[in-house]
Structure formats: C-alpha cells, structure tokens
Specification:
By secondary structure, the protein is mainly alpha-helical. The chain has six helices and no strands. Helix 4 runs antiparallel to helix 5. The longest helix has 31 residues.
Length: 208
C-alpha cells in the first residue's frame, strides 16, 4: 500500500501593510518647519505648541510604533526618539507660560544638544539606505547643535544658521516623502535619493 501523501499546506499571503514612514516624514516636515519659522520670527510660538505636539509628537510616535510591527528597527527608534522629543518641547513652552514645572537656564539647550548627538549617531545607520537620509540627519544634528550653542552663548546668528539648517532638513524630508509616496502608490521612483554611503554588513559585496 502506498504511503499517504501529506496534503500540501495552504499558504495564506501576508496582507500588504502601509509604510509608517509616510506619516513619520509628514509629521517631521510639518513640525520642524513650523518650529523654525517661529525661531526666525515669522510666527509666534503658539503654533509650535499645537503643531509640535500633534505632528511632531503624536504622529511620529505612532509612526515609530507601527515600524515595530513591520520589523523596522531603524525607524522604530528614530521616530520614537524625535516623537517624544516633540512631546517634551511643547511641555517646556507650556511650563514657561503657566509657571508650572518651568524649564529654564541651560536645560532646554542641553536637551536639544542631546538630540543633536542622537541624530549624528543615527546618521551611520541611515547611510545604509540612500544619500538623502543621512544628509537629512546631518542637517538635523547641525541645526540642533547650533541652536543649542546659540542659547548657551547668546549668539543669535548661530541660532539663525541652525534654524536654516533645520529648514533644509525639513525640505529633504519632504523630498524623501514625495519619492516614498510615489513608490507606494504608483510603484514609481520619481526623484533620485542617491546611493547608500555605507554598505550593510548583511549584503554581500558585488564581484567585479
């Protein structure tokens, strides 16, 4: 008698998930641009409180947590780190207005400097993706660092330069968002992001 042939397992395809980076980049662009326009005196800080808390904070934290479910470690930590940064910063503003747990002195620029160092550290992993991402992180690192130094030293010019670097980071993030949206919705890359600066360790080198 022939041995029983096991039935072929029925494979259910995994449903396609949306890319959390779409809302993560959107939140970063809107919050960063709003904050730097306030820094340059174009608008007051009231908009920074609401836009920063919602788009910079809530939206980026959601993007970070959704990245966990798709196994994206890089964006999980980056969006969460800067999402919680943007939740703390409006809290600093609110404390200053209400005089409740007010953060003064070197605490705020020191907090920004910590995230400048974080952005610099994230640059190396970001450089394995393309050219636009590490350049964006370098602009974030430079912008936050200059604004922090300006606050420490009372040098308004450095703060202005830092604000423009962060506006540049916002523009590059929007550039990446355009490409990501086009790729996810039309399966087309419409703008070049450039080659990675660093080859991933799990990717074999190409033979000449």
């Amino acid at each position: 008698m022939d041995a029983a042939v096991p039935a072929r397992a029925h494979v259910v395809p995994e449903p396609r998930r949306a890319d959390p980076g779409l809302i993560g980049l959107l939140g970063f662009v809107i919050a960063t641009l709003t904050a730097q326009l306030a820094h340059l005196g174009v608008q007051n800080e009231s908009a920074v409180f609401w836009v920063g808390a919602v788009f910079g904070g809530v939206v980026q934290v959601i993007a970070g947590m959704l990245s966990y479910f798709v196994g994206d470690d890089f964006h999980f930590i980056v969006y969460n780190a800067f999402g919680w940064y943007w939740i703390c910063m409006p809290g600093f503003l609110l404390g200053g207005e209400l005089g409740f747990f007010e953060v003064s002195g070197p605490a705020r620029p020191l907090f920004s400097m910590m995230f400048a160092v974080l952005a610099l550290g994230f640059t190396f992993a970001g450089a394995t993706h393309n050219s636009a991402l590490p350049l964006t992180l370098l602009l974030v690192a430079g912008g936050l660092a200059l604004e922090a130094v300006a606050a420490f030293a009372g040098a308004a010019t450095l703060g202005t330069v830092g604000a423009w670097l962060l506006i540049g980071a916002s523009a590059l993030a929007f550039y990446m968002l355009v490409d990501k949206f086009a790729w996810r919705t039309m399966a087309r890359h419409i703008v070049p992001l450039g080659p990675p600066w660093i080859r991933r360790g799990d990717v074999p080198a190409e033979h000449p």
